[in-house]
Write a structure and sequence with these properties.
Arc Repressor Mutant, subunit A, DNA-binding, homotetramer
Chain lengths: ~230, ~230, ~230, ~230
DNA sequence: AATGAATGAGGATTCATTCAT
DNA sequence: CATGAATGAATCCTCATTCAT
């Protein structure tokens, strides 16, 4: 019984998140309302608040789930690559394929990138650069889903860090770069290339530039940004 | 008589925009409410709607004003530079100085970058890459303030295009790049470096990275992105 | 538990409708504001929107309730009449008595006669003249209250149709008339006799005609309109 | 100069009324806003208030102008008829033709039928049934346009009264009717037949009745209402 | 006569969250 | 766990009218 309940609970939770995700994809975070999620998930509004303490937390859960899914695929893909260069290419490809394969999920992710979670005064907590995120960090974060998201973010950045570090050793990445900020910037650059912000979108439209072309140009630029000076690679 | 009124009207308009700008800076576009703007500007709500047909239009006006101010300074600065390399440096510096000098204004600008204006079906209008924005484009945009903003955007991108084109001729910019998409991407990269999106911000905090350091790293990366392969320049 | 809640809910719903009805009677549909209804019903505005999706729907609910009440009485009264002639007289009397007995309710009804409900594209739905309104029609009407109203309208018209049909058989109604349009016209004529439109009201005032006299004249005219040519009836 | 001014003034007045009329036809009285009228008439809002003391008065002016136009045509047509029966037919035809020829104007008229003018306490004024409307009545009505409308209404009703009186003499109208209330009712019946109120409209739609058919039925009924018992006329 | 900036009360509706059942 | 009725502050926007110029 307990086990059965447990499973049902997990199912419900995921169902709710599925609906929320779809709504975020369609109408943005702002446009996703608790009432509509409840209706579409066929539960009472109160039930939503049994599973998620508030809207922000629900968003965090959805965000974390997407981030995790992407990261796991990235880890797999990168694991099957022989060198850093291929790994970088592979992880980038994962994002592309994800966008193609799960357009709604990607669309939700894109919206969630812009969301500020009420992380209160977490700033103080961070002081540790080592990679044991689960263990020593985020313990004071009240919201479990937000904590999960932060952990997921961290895992992702450290996955990339490892790859880039290897890239430096193998010579396909400029050696003088500071890894972590570089990774963070590269990641944002990738997202901005895939999903230009309104300002950039206006300009692209005004100049009649095909989004896919923009994406190619942007990718080329980011590659040059980290490539060693004399690199002949493509 | 007419002149006096004219001036008074312009003043009021600017006063309203000043208030709105400040509120956007402090609480975001969403947090800026027409009621509060009216109260702080010491006018009736109805008066706001005499000057601006709706909130969106007011935002567009504020956005256009900031964009214009920045562009004008950039034009001046770049005009006083002898070569493209210096011009690029100067225009970037303008953004930095602007941020420093007018933190509120900058903050509002940052928020407005994310705002979608109701630009209906403008897509059709664009088909002209030449630089006569004022003359041949945007005539069908119903909202004057939004039209002004689009024109301002275009002027800015064409200013940068001229500089980058010169840069290619002078050899400080990679010659094989496609100018316009590159400029748009570089511009967004600069903004993302200065004002990381929530997602990036979380990561920076989690990794305990100083925003200013992040900015330096990001700038270095963007420079490498457009620099010719064998360039020795710094 | 459930039952108690159920009852309480129904009560509240009716309370709200009572207030709305009274306000419509006093100030017209336009003058009835959601805020005032909420205040007088001693509930929060939000509560109104729990029970009625919008103002229009609330009006429809009030309208349907009145229509139903009148129709039920009419059915009872007409059932106790031996012939069609008496039935017609009785149903007309019901309207008179209703107006006398529930002046506010009647007054609200009068206002609601002029209200356009957002019935979208219902036109398509109608194609069935048989009398199974509840069963086969109106299924696509999104708003339940509006649907109820339409069903009520239909029930009323079919009640009258049956009576008039009987009247033709019994010879007190002209046999060559087309029943349904006649009934609809007769009904409007009755209402216009009871509650002259502003235009008619002005004329009555200008000619110094007593409304009750006007009513009598109008009733006499409508009787002649459907009476067989050679009828001696009064 | 004075004459020229005079004419220009009259033109302006009519232009404004034209615009107002069109807007009433399209969006109803409520939907016609002074601001939009001013814009479309290419005058300042203030100018509207130079010509019409308020919205209600403007509506009254529009209403009176339409009423007058219809009445004048009716007078002409009825003058050219040899007997009352033909006159009645002719005056009814005038309404039909008017509707066909000036659909916008008619549409506006239909809306204005429902408008209550602020006639304050005019009730007291009426006490005179003789036909010298311009001379002895309405002198206390503050608003000239409303007064014009009332006078127009009265002229119309007296035109009809003369025709019906003749009809009685000629035997085509029941002799026992009370003329004035009958005329008022007949007039409203005609309008309701041409432009069913929302309530009737719903029913017509629900029963799938063609408006033109409804109109025919309604006209037939009204004819019977006033026809002498044994009349063989059609 | 003509202008049009200014008014501001007032409208309908939304929505995250709570809590008694 | 689950429910869903209740909340009520908050939002954007309208529009007839006035009055100083």
């Amino acid at each position: 019984m307990s086990e059965r309940m447990e499973r049902r609970k997990k199912e419900r939770r995921n169902e709710i998140m599925d609906i929320a995700e779809k709504m975020i994809a369609q109408k943005g975070v702002q446009g996703m309302t608790m009432k509509e999620v409840a209706e579409k998930a066929d539960v009472a509004i109160g039930t939503l608040y049994v599973y998620f303490k508030n809207k922000n937390s629900l968003c965090a859960a959805v965000n974390a789930r997407i981030s995790k899914q992407m990261r796991v695929i990235m880890e797999e893909e990168s694991a099957s690559c022989s060198n850093a260069c291929k790994k970088i290419r592979a992880t980038t490809a994962v994002v592309f394929e994800f966008r193609e394969k799960y357009p709604d999920r990607w669309s939700a992710f894109k919206e969630l990138l812009l969301l500020n979670y009420d992380t209160e005064n977490i700033n103080d907590i961070y002081s540790n650069n080592d990679f044991n995120p689960e263990i020593n960090d985020f313990q004071d974060i009240s919201d479990e889903n937000i904590r999960d998201l932060l952990i997921e973010d961290k895992k992702m950045s450290h996955l990339m860090k490892d790859i880039y570090r290897q890239g430096i050793q193998e010579g396909c990445i400029r050696s003088e770069i500071d890894l972590m900020p570089t990774i963070i910037f590269m990641r944002m650059a990738l997202f901005m290339a895939l999903e230009p912000l309104p300002y950039a979108q206006r300009m692209l439209e005004a100049e009649n530039i095909d989004p896919e072309h923009f994406l190619e140009v942007a990718l080329d630029l980011t590659r040059h940004a980290v490539r060693p000076q004399s690199s002949k690679k493509r």
